[in-house]
């Protein structure tokens, strides 16, 4: 099986002219520009097989959008090679465009003043989709994305969730092999998000459309992506599964216990009045207290969760107990801050 | 190759249909726009006419003659403005980030830019041009018109329209580097239109040369008018040069399309 | 309260200073169009040396003064107030403890000062250099011109305030703005010096307030107005400005009530 995306040692350097202040400075900048080099992407290598669904995460300015622009032919690379669907994007941009779909979460490609169906009709003509194929695709998309209710509504009157579904439909009308989604669930409520995630899951499993998802929402990644790529400062920091990263870096779980009021008052306190839990087991820490709630952080391998609950229950009367998995967000933050991935990059 | 042209034309037609339908969503607004625009352009023309009450002629050009020149300029600029509005407003496309979306489609970027805007009220200037032409016909002797003069008229209008469109395109290309200079570009396009309403000979030598050899609007509007009126062409050109306006238009259009390609490549090299 | 309004005007002036490049671009544009009209005027005068006592030089000066005054009294598309209505900002503005009208007045005064210094003066100087205009007036005329000029600014501010605040009641006001500005510019003398208009039209123009925007001040500076005409013009233009300000305040009160009742 051939890969749909093959990127090797991709790099992009931007030459920015530094702005000098003042009127004379402005004139000098035209005549003798002082250039600043920005390495947006450095030595990025990535291989995506057909039918994969991968999540691309990284802080703002990490080089994610720059990479995607190079993959779609909008931006020319400074170095390295890219092949998408067997084509070099910058050379065969228009040909490639017919095989891919792109959805921007924050910028719609739909025409504002007209009903959704009009935008879709125009896109049919742009992508040269034959009439019958269009009708079939539209019917399928209507059903999967539940569009019938607002097909005839002007786009400016649609809710964000409806508009998003419209944009996704617009991107899929021509049955692309590869779909890029840039922040597709941003600003949506829980129900709308779940809906879109469900749809993307179906699209990936049934149609085998390769999906590349850029997002800040960790729930998206955990729900959808088997594979996750972390990019920061133009480098690829991590390329593997979500479980792997959790197992490697996210070994700490959190136990949140709600104590009985009387039990809370019986607990010993230190000089500052903070609650103390003496002789906690190894690798268990009291992280926080808030009224009757206490947060205990414990290492996954230290003791099984039920044992810790039992230990705690023996010392204080518990009203309620919940567990919290470490959020990918905080795992990633730890990785950045503690430079944990320096030796762990999986190709 | 020809099939591509037909396909693109059909696609352009779809764009136009969408734009028109979009405007018809706000019918009252559309009427108001058309009315106000007609008034604006009409008032400019009325001012021109009013000058001829105290003054019998402009240099040695009579009213009818000036109106002929005017009508040519109005009509050709009007045509360019109607179809080239997307190009004229290109700075907006860049600033809103819509250009990336154009690059993501399998279609010609130029076509998408053209199709991005099309407002009906701009036909007002074309209509005005035609009306002014009718007025000029009334004021000029009927014996003036021969077949070759009608031909040079048509060639002139189409060539000047093309040159104005190419000018818009050059203005758009500059937007790839900076969006701060739109006002200066407007000066060349709208200024050029304003200038071409009056005989070229009233301007100083520098301006005459600029609008003949660098931005050849004079070739399409002034030269044909001189030919029709039996006046000598400027710079000592022989009369048949008036028929060369299409060549000027093609060369100028070709140059501007080259610049357009360079602009796109620059955009793809440096990002937005 | 006066120091507050003074600072509003000053802040507005300072804000305009930041748009240096835009101003230069505008200067070049104004100079270009001024030159263009000048060529036309010169060509027209080939057949006839003077009209009603106005020579070529007079009319050229008129043209350049009109270009110079343009941005000061009647910037073409002024939507500032209308935009705050559209975005809803105006609701919080109306509940501020200052007078809404005078606030906008002060703001626009600051801008007008900027445009006087950085457009008006440079443009006339450019015209003088390019077309050898010279300066037309003696000190007495200059003094009266300054008065007429200040009146022009007041009229201009009141007018644009009015055609903006109407946006409270008309939803899509863009076309109306074009109409308002075009008519005003025509009767101010921007399209054609008013003394070229046929008698009845000239008469009409002289009773409209737009006359005070450009035509009247310019004619004063050119020394073409007799004391009697001057008196009559000042009186009528003062009446117009008072009238317009009264309408401004009336409409603002109505708008405020509407905001309170409807909640914006």
From TrEMBL, chain A:
Pfam families: ABC_tran. This is ABC transporter ATP-binding protein. PROSITE patterns: ABC_TRANSPORTER_2. Coiled coil: none annotated. Keywords: ATP-binding, Nucleotide-binding, Transport. The keyword Iron does not apply. Residues 5-258 form the ABC transporter domain. CDD domains: ABC_NatA_like (cd03267). GO terms for molecular function: ATP binding; ATP hydrolysis activity. The lineage of its organism: Bacteria, Bacillati, Chloroflexota, Ktedonobacteria, Ktedonobacterales. Gene3D superfamilies: P-loop containing nucleotide triphosphate hydrolases. The keyword Nucleotide-binding applies. Transmembrane segments: none annotated.
UniProtKB/TrEMBL annotation, chain B:
It comes from the Bacteria. Keywords: Membrane, Transmembrane, Transmembrane helix. The keyword Iron-sulfur does not apply. InterPro entries: ABC-2_transporter-like. The keyword Oxidoreductase does not apply. The chain crosses the membrane at residues 34-53, 126-145, 151-179, 200-223, 235-260. PANTHER family: INTEGRAL MEMBRANE TRANSPORT PROTEIN (PTHR36833:SF1), SLR0610 PROTEIN-RELATED (PTHR36833). This is ABC transporter permease.
Automatic annotation (TrEMBL), chain C:
Keywords: Membrane, Transmembrane, Transmembrane helix. The chain crosses the membrane at residues 21-44, 64-81, 113-134, 140-163, 175-196, 230-251. This is ABC transporter permease. It comes from Thermosporothrix sp. COM3. The lineage of its organism: Bacteria, Bacillati, Chloroflexota, Ktedonobacteria, Ktedonobacterales.
């Amino acid at each position: 099986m051939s890969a749909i995306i093959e990127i090797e040692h991709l790099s992009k350097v931007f030459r920015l002219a530094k702005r000098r202040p003042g009127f004379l400075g402005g004139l000098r900048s035209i005549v003798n520009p002082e250039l600043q080099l920005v390495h947006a992407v450095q030595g990025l290598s990535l291989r995506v097989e057909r039918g994969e669904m991968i999540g691309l995460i990284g802080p703002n300015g990490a080089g994610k959008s720059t990479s995607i622009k190079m993959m779609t032919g909008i931006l020319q690379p400074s170095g390295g090679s890219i092949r998408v669907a067997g084509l070099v994007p910058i050379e065969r941009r228009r040909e490639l465009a017919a095989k891919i779909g792109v959805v921007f979460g924050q910028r719609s490609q739909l025409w504002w003043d007209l009903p959704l169906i009009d935008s879709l009709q125009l896109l049919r003509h742009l992508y040269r989709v034959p009439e019958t194929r269009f009708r079939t695709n539209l019917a399928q998309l209507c059903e999967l994305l539940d569009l019938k209710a607002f097909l005839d509504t002007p786009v400016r009157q649609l809710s964000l969730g409806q508009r998003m579904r419209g944009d996704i439909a617009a991107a899929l009308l021509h049955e692309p092999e590869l779909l890029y989604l840039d922040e597709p669930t941003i600003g949506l409520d829980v129900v709308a998000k779940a809906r879109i995630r469900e749809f993307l899951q179906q699209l990936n499993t049934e149609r085998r459309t390769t999906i590349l998802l850029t997002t800040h929402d960790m729930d998206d990644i955990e729900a959808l992506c088997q594979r996750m790529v972390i990019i920061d400062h133009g480098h690829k920091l991590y390329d593997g599964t979500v479980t792997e990263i959790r197992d490697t870096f996210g070994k700490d779980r959190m136990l949140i216990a709600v104590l009985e009021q009387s039990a809370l008052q019986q607990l010993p306190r230190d000089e500052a009045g903070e609650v103390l839990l003496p002789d906690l087991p190894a690798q268990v820490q009291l992280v926080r207290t808030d009224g009757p709630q206490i947060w205990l952080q414990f290492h996954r391998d230290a003791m099984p969760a039920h044992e810790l609950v039992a230990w705690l229950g023996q010392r204080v009367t518990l009203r309620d107990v919940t567990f919290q998995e470490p959020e990918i967000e905080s795992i990633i933050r730890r990785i950045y801050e503690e430079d944990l991935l320096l030796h762990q990059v999986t190709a | 190759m020809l099939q591509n042209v037909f396909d693109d034309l059909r696609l352009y037609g779809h764009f136009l249909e969408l734009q028109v339908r979009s405007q018809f969503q706000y019918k009252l607004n559309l009427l108001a726009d058309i009315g106000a625009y007609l008034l604006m352009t009409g008032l400019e023309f009325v001012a021109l006419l009013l000058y001829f009450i105290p003054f019998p002629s402009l240099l040695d050009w009579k009213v009818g003659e000036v109106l002929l020149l005017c009508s040519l300029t109005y009509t050709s600029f009007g045509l360019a403005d109607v179809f080239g509005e997307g190009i004229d407003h290109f700075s907006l496309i860049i600033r809103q980030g819509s250009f990336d979306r154009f690059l993501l489609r399998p279609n010609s970027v130029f076509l998408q830019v053209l199709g991005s805007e099309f407002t009906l009220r701009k036909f007002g200037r074309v209509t005005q041009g035609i009306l002014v032409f009718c007025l000029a016909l009334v004021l000029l002797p009927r014996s003036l018109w021969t077949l070759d003069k009608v031909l040079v008229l048509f060639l002139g209008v189409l060539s000047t329209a093309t040159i104005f469109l190419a000018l818009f395109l050059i203005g758009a290309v500059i937007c790839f580097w900076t969006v701060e200079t739109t006002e200066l570009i407007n000066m060349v396009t709208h200024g050029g239109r304003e200038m071409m309403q009056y005989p070229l000979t009233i301007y100083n030598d520098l301006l005459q040369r600029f609008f003949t050899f660098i931005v050849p609007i004079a070739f399409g509007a002034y030269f044909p008018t001189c030919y029709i009126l039996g006046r000598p062409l400027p710079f000592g050109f022989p009369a048949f040069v008036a028929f060369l306006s299409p060549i000027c238009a093609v060369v100028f259009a070709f140059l501007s399309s080259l610049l357009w390609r360079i602009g796109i490549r620059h955009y793809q090299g440096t990002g937005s | 309260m006066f120091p507050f309004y003074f600072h509003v005007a000053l802040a507005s002036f300072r804000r305009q200073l930041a748009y240096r490049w835009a101003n230069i671009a505008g200067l070049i544009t104004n100079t270009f169009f001024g030159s263009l009209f000048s060529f036309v005027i010169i060509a027209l005068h080939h057949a006839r040396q003077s009209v009603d006592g106005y020579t070529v030089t007079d009319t050229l000066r008129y043209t350049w003064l009109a270009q110079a005054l343009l941005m000061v009294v009647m910037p073409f598309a002024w939507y500032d107030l209308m935009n705050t209505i559209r975005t809803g900002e105006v609701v919080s503005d109306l509940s501020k403890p200052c007078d809404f009208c005078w606030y906008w007045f002060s703001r626009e005064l600051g801008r007008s000062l900027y445009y006087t210094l950085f457009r008006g003066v440079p443009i006339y100087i450019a015209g003088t250099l390019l077309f050898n205009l010279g300066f037309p007036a003696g000190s007495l005329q200059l003094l009266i011109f300054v008065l007429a000029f200040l009146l022009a600014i007041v009229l201009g501010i009141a007018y644009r305030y009015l055609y903006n605040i109407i946006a409270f009641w008309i939803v899509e006001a863009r076309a109306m703005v074009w109409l308002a500005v075009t008519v005003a510019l025509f009767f101010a003398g921007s399209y054609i010096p008013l003394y070229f208009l046929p008698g009845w039209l000239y008469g009409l123009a002289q009773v409209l307030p737009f006359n005070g925007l450009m035509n009247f001040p310019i004619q004063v500076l050119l020394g073409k107005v007799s004391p009697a005409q001057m008196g009559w013009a000042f009186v009528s233009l003062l009446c117009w400005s008072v009238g317009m300000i009264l309408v401004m305040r009336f409409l603002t009160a109505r708008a405020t009530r509407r905001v309170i009742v409807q909640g914006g």
